[in-house]
Amino acid sequence: MFSDNHVHTQYCPHGSPEVMEMYVQAAVKKGLTRLTFTEHAPLMIDDTVPEKDSAMSLEDLSAYIKEGEKLKKRYQHDIDIRIGLEVDYIEGKEKETEAFLRKYSSLVPYSILSVHFILLPDGTYFCIDYSKESFMEKIDQVGFDTLTQTYERTLHKALSLPFGDVTPKTLGHLNLIQKFDKAHGRKVLLDWTALLDKVSENHYRLDYNFAGLDKPLYGQTYPSAQLVSQALDQGIELSHGSDAHHPDEIGRYFERSVENG
Ligand SMILES: [Zn+2]
Ligand SMILES: [Zn+2]
């Protein structure tokens, strides 16, 4: 509860220009004892969103790590800073992703593995959390069931140690596919129990992500309170994260954690 383990930086092209130190200062001010930077790792595919701004560029990676290390030292008496990445699990790019993770293996223990892109039956990649409009359009094109079932299938692969011993074992926002729930009004019927079983079987943690509370078409945490309770019952470890893209969002809503209720 006293650590925020999902934090972005100025190296995120869809985030804010506030520098990493501002996030550190916000965390110290909030009384957090640990902050983990998890910038979006460079993408292994051509970005499919119009702005091409889903992830950090490869050129920025070493500057990001260096700046993190510098802050870790500078603030060592105030807060424990860790440097990881938010890595995309991209079906079909497992080899490339694994090679990347081997090269940066020191970041793996603090990294998050997320599914933002799914590989559709027509061979194209689709970003599920980009916009309501693109999500609704994709439902019309491929059908709601294909979309949600492809996400579920992709999650199972992400939860099956796709990169062996360099697989990041914190699964990001498990039910991100529900981000636009209130736009389509349909129930996403995935077998969540089977997914949680996979989480526990392969000893992953879950990113307990509070950004969803600020998404107007969703309005809950990822995973939802009910799923979080189920996960806790199964002994699954949670990793609290604000998914902050601005320093003001550090530690957002952590007081609403089900563990507090
Ligand atoms: Zn982001
Ligand atoms: Zn994130």
Shape: globular
The CATH topology turns out to be TIM Barrel
How many helices? The count is 8
CATH architectural name:
Alpha-Beta Barrel
Rounded to an integer in angstroms, the radius of gyration calculated over CA atoms is 17 Å
Structural class: alpha/beta
Number of domains: 1
Kindly report the name of the CATH homologous superfamily: Metal-dependent hydrolases
Fold and architecture overview:
The protein has 261 residues and is α/β, with parallel strands linked by helices. The protein has a single domain (3-260), classed as Alpha-Beta Barrel (TIM Barrel). 32% of the residues lie in helices and 16% in strands. It contains 8 helices and 9 strands. It has helices at residues 20-29, 61-74, 94-103, 132-142, 144-158, 181-184, 192-201, 225-233, and strands spanning 3-7, 34-40, 80-88, 112-114, 117-119, 125-127, 170-171, 205-209, 238-241. The chain has a 4-stranded parallel β-sheet with strand order 1-2-3-4. A 3-stranded parallel β-sheet has the order 7-8-9, covered by helices on one side. Helix 8 (225-233) links the parallel strand 8 (205-209) and strand 9. Helix 4 (132-142) packs across helix 5. The longest helix is centred in the middle third of the chain and has 15 residues, at 144-158. It is globular and about 50 Å long. The model has no long low-confidence stretch (mean pLDDT 97). It binds zinc ion (ZN) (2 copies). One zinc ion binds at residues 6, 8, 86, 243.
